[in-house]
Fold this sequence. Notes:
This protein has helices spanning about 40, 70-80, 95-105, 125-135, 155, 160-170, 175-180, 215-220, 240, 245-255; strands spanning about 5, 10-15, 20-25, 45-50, 85-90, 110-115, 200-205, 225-230. The protein is of the alpha/beta class. It has a single domain (about 5-255), classed as 3-Layer(aba) Sandwich (Rossmann fold). The radius of gyration is 16 Å and the shape is globular.
Amino acid sequence: MPRVKVDKAEIYYEMHGEGPTVAMAHGGSGNTLAWFQQLPAFTKRYRVLLFDQRGWHRSPCAPDDVHPKYFADDLLAVLDREKIPKVAICGHQVGGWTALATAMQAPDRVHAIAMSASAGGVVPTGIMNAFARGPGKTVGTPAIRPSSVAPAFGKHHPERMVLFDQLARLNQDLFKPMQLLLHPDVIVKTERLKGYRTPTLVLAGQESQIIPPAALQEATAMIPGAEFKVMPGVGHSPPWEAPEAYSRHVLEFFARHVPAN
């Protein structure tokens, strides 16, 4: 599979299907493999670009260079390599930082973005408190994984919890870069969103143990024009826990904003 050299890293990516391109930016415990439940539905309509973000799985990078400031440039480098003029982006958890950063940096390259369990670096008080006081304070460590799904998910789907854990083990130690997501220089301030016009959807899990839906709704309200939906019975990992419902919400949203080829 192809790789593209970027500043201080090498990004692994792969393409699936035909049609307008949808790029999928995975969460902190994931990598390209985490999207296997979405591929069948999305490739019926789109060409899907999967990639390991810098420092994750097959995109090797020195720990000190796994920084959110590179995320948008990394994705744009892949788009340039493949001569893809414009995409829609799914960003889950940390992938939301990639989605929103790309939409702000290169709005003419992005049809729409759909973020789940993330507002892409928009971090009002509710989200900051959630990471400071709840399970989110262990972000980037194995300790957070049981809290990354709804409380009863592991009981009802033990095999998927095993797979969830095994996929995360393919990644290097990411504690330090995950802490950078809340660094003052990375957090998206309101003034940076002035004039923002990219159609944006934010999906929250009703039973999220990491970011309460109300906190994510507060953040969504700060993104001009963004839509917000709560997924019942779902925790902090909507694409993993409820793949069919997640795909339905995102595909319906993209159908309104992504032109057919």
